[in-house]
Amino acid sequence: MMPLISDKSIAPSLENKPAEEPKKLKACCACPDTKRVRDACIMENGEEKCRHLIEAHKECMRKMGFNI
User: Which residue in 12, 22, 29, 36 has a CA-CA distance of 20 to 30 Å to 56?
Assistant: First the structure.
């Protein structure tokens, strides 16, 4: 006697499921602490006086995987 339902129809196959990709972090959301300090400094003092904070933010972004 043949079964009415095959074993494959009961258990979903893992082969058909796409691999879940990790959520990618957007550049606007990365390094919020260095970004906030950098932006405040630039608004108050101008870019020339905030180079060290700009570089610190760039370094943080690089560590997060962004090509800056």
Answer: 22
